[in-house]
Every structure is written in C-alpha cells, then in structure tokens.
Amino acid sequence: MAPSATSVAPALAATAAGGVGHGSPADKTAARIQNQDGSPLYPEYMPFYDPLEKVEDLGYFEHFDPGHRADPRLPNLLANATRVVDLSPHVGTEIEGVQLSQLSSAGLDELALMAARRGALVFRNQDFRDIGLARQKSIVRHFGPLHVHGWAPHPVAGSPEHMVIYDHRDDLRVRRSWKGRSPIQWHTDQSPEPQPPGTTFICMLESPPAAGGDTLVSSSVQAYKALSPRFRKRLEGLTAIHSNNDGVTQELKNNGDKAVMRRRELVQEHPVVIVHPVTREKALYVNPVYTKRIVGFDQEESDCILQFLFDHIAKRQDFQCRVRYEPGTVLVWDQRVTNHSQTLDYPAGARRHAFRLTPLANVPIPALVEEDDGECAKDEARVQLGLC
Ligand SMILES: [Fe+2]
C-alpha cells in the first residue's frame, strides 16, 4: 500500500533564507515527502530484531549469471526509457521512464548486463516499494538466491531476506555502530561470503527531509585500470582473506543481550583481482571493511599494499559517483565491479528508511597472470605519455 503522505518543508529551509514569505527562497526549497505527524511512511518495513533468530548458511550453489542471456543492445530494458544519463564517465547511469516491476525476464537479463557494464543504475519514482515483499523477492531472485544478513534487521512484516536500513531518533542502532569513527567505509557488501553478492537492489522508502543519505559508488574496474600495468601484474594471482569479524564484534559490543547473531562468523579467501563472469572485465576485489590480509605476504607488506589500495579506492574521485535518493528511488548495482559507502551526513534523528535485497552470485573468478597481455598498449592515455 502506498502511504498517504504530505510534503513538509524542512525546518532548515524556513530559517536559512532569512524568513519565510510569499516567493521567498525558502518557499522554493524542495522537501522530500514525509508524514505530517512524524510517523514513518512505510510502517510495515520498520526494523525487527530477534536475538534468538538463527539461519543456516546457504553453502555452495550453481550460479548462471542472467547477464549471459542479455541482448547487448538492451532493447527490452530500454524499450520505454525516456532518458539515459551517465552520472560520471566510469560508473553510474540514471534511467528515466522504466518501471523495474514491469520488466520482462529478458529485460531483467539486460538489467544485469547493464549493471555489470555501468556499475550502478538509478531508477526514480518506482512502484517497487508498493508491490509487496513476495513480488519484490521474486524479481530480485532472478539474479541469484537471496542473502540473509547475520545481524541486520528485517521488516516487522516478515521476510528475513529483506535487509532493513533504518536510522531515526527512535532507533539509534545505526548511529551507535558508527560512534567515534568515520561513517565513510568503502566496501562491497558481504565479501566474506564464499559466493559474494552480484546484482543488488536498494529501495528507498523515506529519505531525510533535506539533502543527505546519499550512496557513494566507486568503479573497481577503473580502480584496477588506473594502476600501472606492472603493478597490476604484481596484484594478479594474489589472494586475500576477507572476514566479517569486526561487524560481529561491533554488534555484540553495541547491543549486548539484544544483539542478533543469526549466522556464524564468515572468513573467506578471494582473489585480489577478479574477472566479471559476463563482461570479462578485471576488477580490484579488496575493501577496507572486510579484507584483512594478503595471503603469503608478511604482515607489514600486506598492511602497506592493502592501505595503498584502500586509499586508491577512497581518494580517486575520478572513478566515483554519488547517488542521491528520493522516496521511491531504486539503486541497482553490481557488487563485483564496485565499492560503495554510506554518507550518514544528514541531521542526527532524521529518518532514513530503505531495504536491500542482495542476490548471491558466482565464486569470484581470479584474473589470470599473463606475461604481456597488451593492456598497456590498449591504454591510450599511457601510450600518449610514453608509459608503455
Ligand atoms: Fe553496503
């Protein structure tokens, strides 16, 4: 059910412009939709925590990426598109005129391919939030079996596969989990899984009234390509250990006997450079949240190389984009070719409410070490500067 809601102007808008009057700048400040009485727009998606809940690991499974079946011209996905705008050269595209809930199976195949190519796709004004838990899951299962998070809440209405993202003055779990440290934490979700996520959905239900709560996205394909060919060769063939032990520790420390521990702690070894199963693009597959050490390196060597790579991902804004949400925005992104971060930059106490559905995908495919695969000669910028 769509909520009946009215738009209320943010308090900031009334004060920032030096008084509110007819035609004042404050009148023109856009405000996101909220209920007048302060209640959530989507109460059935309020977070539910059960400290006794347990879930079995899925184990290994066969994965066939739907992007393999896609028509590379994307005729089904873009049949009704009115505008397609890249958010930055290397990552992120916004598509107008397409309702995700109306896509055919072929359209969803093409969605997987386009997400793999562009990293992140933004769809606004979606009815996806109003089609119910079962239909939402049946659409996203097209991309793989749905992940169940180890401790994050699911909706009070049920469905453990729906991971609820909720921050508001009446529930400080999110704020508390970032207490005393930067909320900017680049990562791919759940990389310690044996078959980590692929084409993932976030559906925004309610955003803070003014700006804020954006997602930052970085291309891992371009992060790899932006390294010198010799350094790329040093990384190929390496593996690294990913673990969610920090998250487990935080959950137990912050929530005590109310902590949710549905699943065991995860530790997994993955290639440092992976290949996307459909595009065959190489991507850097390490992140500062989950990647702990490079296998076979001494501690100082591993710390030094990983810190350089984490800084490389975080600092290189030339292959990042920033996704702004309105209620009804759906972000579809491919975790195998991107890192992302929350921002948590809006006023404390404001409500941000969303859910994530997270299909698991292939066992990460290692990039092959090649003596000379001609990559440098293909890089026009390096050729022009005589770097090959
Ligand atoms: Fe995330």
UniProtKB/TrEMBL annotation:
Please list the coiled coil stretches.
none
Which cofactor(s) does the record list?
Fe(2+)
Which residue numbers delimit the TauD/TfdA-like domain?
A: 86-358
Q: What InterPro entries has UniProt attached to this entry?
A: AtsK-like, TauD-like_sf, TauD/TfdA-like
Q: Which UniProt keywords apply?
A: Dioxygenase, Iron, Metal-binding, Oxidoreductase
Pfam families under this entry? TauD
Which family, according to UniProt? Belongs to the TfdA dioxygenase family.
What is the official name of this protein in its record? TauD/TfdA-like domain-containing protein
